Amino acid sequence: MKIFCQFSRNFHLLGQAFLFILIINNSIHACTIFNKTKGDTVLVGNNEDWLLTDSQVMFYPASEGKYGRMYFGFNKNGYGGMNECGLFYDVCALPRRDINFPEDKPLYLGDFWEFAIETCATVDEVVHLVEQYYIEQLNRQHVMFVDSTGNSAVIEWGRDSLAIIYKTGDYQVVTNFTLSDPNLAGTHPCWRYDTATAMLKDSDVSIESFGHILAAVHQEGNYPTQYSNVYDLGKRVVYVCHYHNFDEVIMFDLIEELEKGFHIYDLPSLFTHAEPILYESDIPNQFQ
Fold first, then answer.
1. Are 88 and 103 in contact (CB under 8 A)?
2. Which residues contact 146 (CB under 8 A, 6 or more apart)?
3. How many CA atoms, within 13 angstroms, populate the side-chain half-sphere of residue 105?
4. Under 8 Å CB-to-CB from 273, ≥6 apart: which residues?
5. 224 contacts 245 by C-beta, under 8 angstroms
6. Low-confidence ranges of the chain (pLDDT < 50)
7. Is there a contact between 145 and 122 (Cβ–Cβ < 8 Å)?
8. What is the pTM of this model?
9. Which of 223, 212, 229, 214 is nearest to 267 (CA)?
10. Whole-number Å distance between alpha carbons of 195 and 257
11. What is the structure's pLDDT at 28?
C-alpha cells in the first residue's frame, strides 16, 4: 500500500559520537502524536524521531495481572505501544525540569507508562492510576493515552501541578511543548503541531490520510523519523513505515502476534530499504 511519496537523502557518519553527546545533554528530540475518531473508528498516528537507529517492536503475552501488549522502541526499551484492550500510549520529550514534587503521594521512579499499559484498559483507568502517584518521568516528558472508545488525554506536569488535557473534539495532537502552559517548556509554536492540527481538521479517518499527515510532519536532519505508525485501536492492528519511507508499509495484528508468545523484531530487518545514514547538518536551533 502506498501511503505517501518516498523521501531519501544522502548523508554520512562524521561526527556522530559528538552529536550524540551534544543532543543528549542539551536537546530534546522531536516526535508527533495525534488521533482522530469517527463513529467506531479510532486511529492514532505517531512519528518517532530520534538519533538511534536500532528500532524494535516487542510483544509480551498476558500474564498474571498484566494485559498482553506490544511496544515500539530501542534497545528493548518501549517508547510507546498498545495493549490487547486497544489502549495506546506514546511519549514526547520535554526539556528536563527540576520539579519539587509534593510529599503527600509516593514518587514513582520506574517506567510508569509501561505500568499503566500493563494494568489499564481505558484512559479513565490510566488517569485514576496517575492520580495516585507523583511520576518522576514527568520532569522530562509528557504522554498521550488513547483507548478504543476514542477517549484521549495528554498527561503532563504543568507549572506547579499535574495536568490532564482531555480531547474535547474529535481529534488531539501533541508534540514537544506543554499543552497546559505552552510557554512553560518546549518549543512553541511548533510547526509539526500546527501542521498536524490543520490537516486533521479536514481529514477523514483513514490509514491513507494519517499516512499523509505523518509524511508532512516527518523529521530529517539530526533527528530523523525512525519509524511511523498508524494504529487502529478497534481492530488492534498497527501499520508501520521505517525511516520515513512511506512507500513501504507492513502491518502487525496484535492478537495474532501475542499468540506466538514473547518475541522481538528488529524493525530495519523487516523492510527492503533498511539502511539509515546520518544527515550532515547542524543541530536545528529549535532543539538546542
1. no
2. 35, 42, 44, 87, 88, 89, 123, 152, 172, 233
3. 15
4. 242, 243, 245, 248
5. no
6. 1-27, 276-288
7. no
8. 0.86
9. 229
10. 34
11. 52
- Helix or strand (DSSP H, E) at 207: helix 207-216
Other CB atoms within 10 Å distance of the CB of residue 102: 9
Length of the chain equals 288
* DSSP bridge partners of 253: 237
Q: Residue 207 CA to chain centroid, in angstroms?
A: 17
Cell 499503566 sits on residue:
116
pLDDT of residue 195: 98
Cell representation of residue 177 = 511543548
For residue 274, what is its C-alpha cell? 533498511
Beta strands in the chain (DSSP E): 31-38, 41-49, 55-60, 69-74, 77-83, 88-93, 107-108, 134-135, 141-146, 152-157, 162-166, 171-174, 225-232, 237-242, 250-253, 263-266
Q: Tens digits of per-residue pLDDT, 187-197?
A: 899 999 999 99
Order of strands, edge to edge, in the sheet holding 69-74? 162-166, 152-157, 141-146, 88-93, 77-83, 69-74, 55-60, 263-266
C-alpha cell read off for 15: 561526527
Whole-angstrom distance, CA of residue 233 vs CA of residue 144: 14
The pLDDT of residue 57 is 97
Those residues whose C-beta lies under 8 Å from the C-beta of residue 245, and which sit 6 or more positions away, are 6, 7, 8, 271, 273
The rounded distance, in Å, linking the Cα atoms of 173 and 154 is 9
